[in-house]
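Most newcomers find our protein records easier to grasp once they have seen one. Sequence and backbone structure share a record, each on its own labelled line. Nothing more is needed to start thinking about how sequence determines fold. As an example, a complete record with its sequence and its structure tokens follows.
=====
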Amino acid sequence: MNVFSNDTGRSGALGKRGATEAGLDEDPAKMKRDLARAQAKIATLERDLSTSNKRNREMEAEMTEQRGKGEVVRAQRDLILKGEANERGRGEEREAKFAEDTKRLNGRLSEYRTKYEKASSSLEALKSEHDQTIGRLAALKQEHVSTAKRLEGELGDAKRQVDSLKLWQRRAQALTIDLEEQKRIVATLRGGRDGEGGEKEGDEVLRKEFRRELPFSVTEVTELRQYKKQAEAAERVQKEIERDLREQIWTLQEQLERSRRDMDSLTQTFPSSPDAALPDAKTLQSRLSSLSALHTQATSDLAQKDSEIRTLDVRLVRQSDDSRAVIQDLTKKLLEAERECRWAKEGRAAAEKGEEFARKQVEALESSSSGPDGVSLGDHTRRVNYLEKQVKLYKAELEAVARDSRELEDRLTQGAGLVKQTMLDEAQTKADTLQADITALQSTIAELTTANTTLDAEVTDLMRRVASGEYNPATERCIEFANNPAAKEKTIRRAELDQLRSENEALIEEIQALEEAKGLKEDEGYVPRASWERLQRENREMEMGHTKRLQRLKEIFSMKSKEFLEAVYSLLGWRIKFDESGADIRLTSMYAPKGKMGLTLKFASQEGHFGTMQMTGAMARGLEEARTFWIVERQSVPGFLAQVTTECFEKTTIGRAAGYVGLE
């Protein structure tokens, strides 16, 4: 548009101007030069204006393009933020689920460990109870063996006594035969002699022989009667002991059967039918070896499974640590992404502000370009330069925002700010695998624990049966040939039999020595050494029991005496003390002061009666009249004691309450 043409049009509308107003009075050449310069400037300005308009149009097109790109970037950013939020939610959900599964698995693992410990403790308790039962059974068996030995010893003593009595009986029979022989000799002598003198002489010889043999016969008869009584007593004692032994054996058999039933109920290894045949020794040995092998294998399997459980625990802990580290890394990256997103938002806001400001400047420039003539060309040039700077700044901001958006998109694409789906899948797969392993291991542990318990019970029962000799010789044989229960019992019996034989031989030698020793007196009696030692032992036991009973009676009498004296002191108010001989008695009142200011009554006994009474103490001076009245005149000691008790009570208790200050 031409400015002058516009001015000319407006002047034409207002009327013609004068030459002076139009400046025609100046030099035409100068005016032509000025006009040419003005036209050149106008052409330049028009060219610049067209260029500026073109630039403005380009800038508007570029701004529109950048605005479209900004919308695209905004949409992409919103999509990325939405995907990031979704991924974060899924990650947190999977993490919570993984933590919950881990917690549940740990709880179940601790529960199974607790059950395993309880089962182990119950197994140990059953083992200890079984060992105690075996110990009690062994003690009862040992007691039975010792009782049997003692009874066998007493039976041997009784047999020796019976043999001694039989020996004495044989001696009596021999003496009877000798007596018959003497009678026959006397009868022969009497028949061979004639006359009264011969008969008297034979009678005298026979009488002397009878007198000589009579004391020995009486002594022997007495000894035989005594030995007979002892033998009868020994037989009675033997029968009682045998009866007690049968009762003990029956009780032990019942306890043994009860223990066997308890072991059968605990182990459940014996057949339920009583007619079922027991396995032989080879079968038991093979079962024992197989059970030992299974027990060893079960122990090794338990140790291996325990090590695997510990390894799984370590893996769980390591996986938990890795999960925590990944979560921390994800949190850190999320914070960085949020910070970068915030910076991108701030840059975009700044770019939008710059864009708005540039738009306002362009609008102002457009309005100013169509304004009045008061606007100079220098102002337009400065504004155009300013707009160009703003456009460059806006482009730089847009490029920075685009660059940040591309970097953020690249980082998100490369997985720098989120958790990869593969990692989460792998973690879930590992968790499922560990859970399956834990379940399998727990079931294996339960099975191995049950098998171990059964094997321990069977091994213990078989070892007990083999060690105690509880086997059936008809269907079983002992594994050991030299050191078996039957051989041990036979050795013990052989040793006892040898000992009894040696004792019997020693007794026979002593009897022979006594029979050969004719220089000893015939009226001296001999008893077996075992009987003598037994009688001495019984005598010592009786003396000890008598001493203990006497000491106990003394203690009881002393205690009862103290109780009686305390009862008398509580009921009658007098403390009674006896001296060592029991002849003197001292009485002290409950209500009398102690020491010299009190009262003590001393009674001296003569031939079982109270002969004299003596009063000592400060309170005795005021009791002479009462003593004369009650003791001398009335001969009543209880009345005197009652009056003394009443006066002491009044002086010490009621008198003090009334204000009496007497004896202290």
